[in-house]
Every structure is written in structure tokens, then in C-alpha cells.
Amino acid sequence: MRILQLSDLHLGKRLKEYSLIADQRYVLEQALDLIKEEKLDACFLCGDIYDSSVPSAEATVLYDEFLAKLHALGIEVFIISGNHDSADKLHFGKAVFEAEKIHIVTRVEESLTPIPLGDDVMIYQLPFIRSLDVNEAFETAAKGTSEAIKEVLGRMNIDTKKTNILLAHQAVFPFNGKLLVGGSEELLSEDGEAVGDVASVDASLFKDFDFVALGHIHKAQNVAKNARYAGSILKYHRDEASSEKSFTIINAEKKNVTYSTKPIHFLHDVVLMKGTLEEILQADGDKNAYVFALLDDKSLVEDPMAKLKIKYPYAAWVDYSSHESSLPDMHVADIEHVSKEKLFSDFYLSQNGEPLSEEQIKIVHGLLGEKEEK
Ligand SMILES: [Mn+2]
């Protein structure tokens, strides 16, 4: 059986001022072509179908179109909800779609029974869960995501003679290893704090599966011999500018699961350009890309975005590299004993990378003095 693994579609996501619907449609068309050309048997959507639990109309239209085209290809489709999806909304039509080979699982209690794919492969679908979902569904007292997942997996009657594949949407950490994040994912701890490893799960939990098709982390990577993140379908953050996006094609046969990749082509790439505005305008950059510009200019440039857009019509964001450096740690008590002039000159130094000139000091001194008098 050969399966296309997609995850983190984030339909409806915007990149700064731009709607990405056309970009997303462009990638999904490539996915459909790939399924046709390679005569694949199935497609996985491993969570974060939508960017929001309240998806836009154009996002639901695109998803509807994509599902209809997958259905027309006659393949089996397996879908789970991610942390960005509304589990209840994505559950819509489940009973009807099931008869049409579109298998949707968004509730943990529905994840225990596998769907056979061919004679040999069994597909299990675990939607994004928090421990409270599991404790509510099974009246357990699991603490943390790892324990909760252990409870769920323990309730699956896995026939280890079959080739077992699991879809999941969690932060799964490699054993003794480091998880590489893309930059656009939101990693949540159990109580909703944005902390990486609290809600994370060790890859060794999934040892009974021949393959785990993962979603949630936007950088494609293997976290175990049997577990892989396909990565998001687009670059959703400037930190992903230098990374590649690809399709993962799973090949499952008689307990032997391998995969290959195919590059994803973009309607508009995401590019990070650094230098002075003049240098960026002189550079031979991709005019068709969403450009994120980090300016090295020491003094403020007038309306840099308008200037950028003349050469790069899809310019998305501009800031100064000096703003990237942060202020030194200071406590309120310390600040109370520091003069306003000193605070301002420290702030200026941190923002601009160089101190105030003699003349500027005089101006600041004059302005602050005036303010005091008033
Ligand atoms: Mn995601």
C-alpha cells in the first residue's frame, strides 16, 4: 500500500496581509497530481486541516473542493483533527463520509478501532488530545499527555502480525534527541502555556506500530525509525524561509514500512532578506516571493515597505535588525534609581547598536528638561 502523508495544511492561514488560499490550492493540486501519477492507494491528513477553529468561508470551500477531488480519485482518505481544528466541526458528516472511504476521527473514543487498508495494513487514527479528553472519555486519571496516550494505546487491540500504522498529532520527541521546530507551530503545555516539552511524548511509546504518521511540528523530520513528521505544506513563518517543504509517500508492505519524498513547489516562496534597504533593492531577489526584510540601516528609512513593494510586490514584513536585540534585564527597583536620560540612552543603544551622539544627547537633555518644567 502506498500512501500520501499530509499534515498541517492550516487552510485559511494568512501571512501578514496576504491570504494564502491560492498558495494552498496550488500545493493541494500538486498532491492530487502526485496521487494520480504514482497511483497511490490512500491519503492521510494528520491534523491542523484548518488554521482556526473558526475557519473562513474560503478555507472551508478549499477543503470541500480537495475532499471531493480525493474522493473522485477513488482512494481511501484518513483524517484526524489537530490542535488548531475544532474537533466537533471537523466531525461534521463523519457517518455519511465513512461509506465513501473518507475516515474522520476527531474524538479519542473513536480511535480504538482500526480501519483495514488492503489485506495487511491496519490504520489507527489518534486525534490531537490533552489528558483531560482521555480522562473524560475513559474515566482514567492520566497525568500529562504521555500517560494519556499510554491509556489510549493500551485500549487498542493491536494485532502485531499485521502492518500497523497510526496517524497522530502531538509533539513527539525523539528518544534522547532534540525536536527541530519550524517556527510557526504553537506548542502547548497541558494547561495551555506555550511551553514545548510539557505536553510532549516520547517516541518509544509507539513501539507497537510499524509507522507513525505525525502532524503538529512544521519541520519535516523523523523522530524515530518508525515515526515521521511530514511537515506543513507551506512555509508559514519567516523562520522557515530557508527550509524545504516536501510530500512524504509511505510505502507499507508486510511489516516493512519505508518512505520517500517529493519536493513541494510554491506559488510564492517565503524569503528572508537581510541588509540595508538599498542593498535589498539592488539584490537579485525573488520578485514573486513573500519577502521578509530585516534592515541593517542605522537610521530609520522613510516608508521602507512602500519602497520594497516597488521591487517586491509581495513584500510582507519589514523591521530593523537592531530591533532584534533585546534590552538588558532590569528590575523595576533598578529603573527607579536611573535617570530618564540614562534610560533613554540605554534604550537607544539597544535599538540602534550605537550610542547617542553628543548632539543627540543635548537634544534629549533639552527635551526632558522641558518636560520636567511643564
Ligand atoms: Mn500545525
Describe the structure.
The protein has helices at 21-37, 57-72, 87-90, 94-98, 131-138, 144-154, 277-282, 304-311, 332-336, 340-352, 358-373, and strands at 2-6, 14-15, 18-19, 42-46, 76-80, 102-105, 115-117, 121-126, 163-169, 171-173, 200-202, 211-215, 221-224, 227-229, 246-253, 256-263, 270-275, 290-295, 315-320. The protein is an alpha/beta fold. It folds into three domains: 2-263, Metallo-dependent phosphatases (Purple Acid Phosphatase, chain A, domain 2), CATH 3.60.21; 270-324, no CATH class; 332-373, no CATH class. The strands form five sheets. A six-stranded mixed β-sheet has the order 6-5-4-1-15-16. A six-stranded mixed β-sheet has the order 7-8-9-12-14-13, with no helix packed on it. The protein has a three-stranded parallel β-sheet with strand order 17-18-19. α5 (131-138) packs parallel to α6 (144-154). The longest helix is centred in the N-terminal third of the chain and has 17 residues, at 21-37. The chain is elongated, with a radius of gyration of 25 Å. It starts with a strand and ends with a helix. Residues 190-198 have low confidence and may be disordered. Residues 8, 10, 48, 82, 84, 185, 216, 218 line the site of manganese (II) ion (MN).
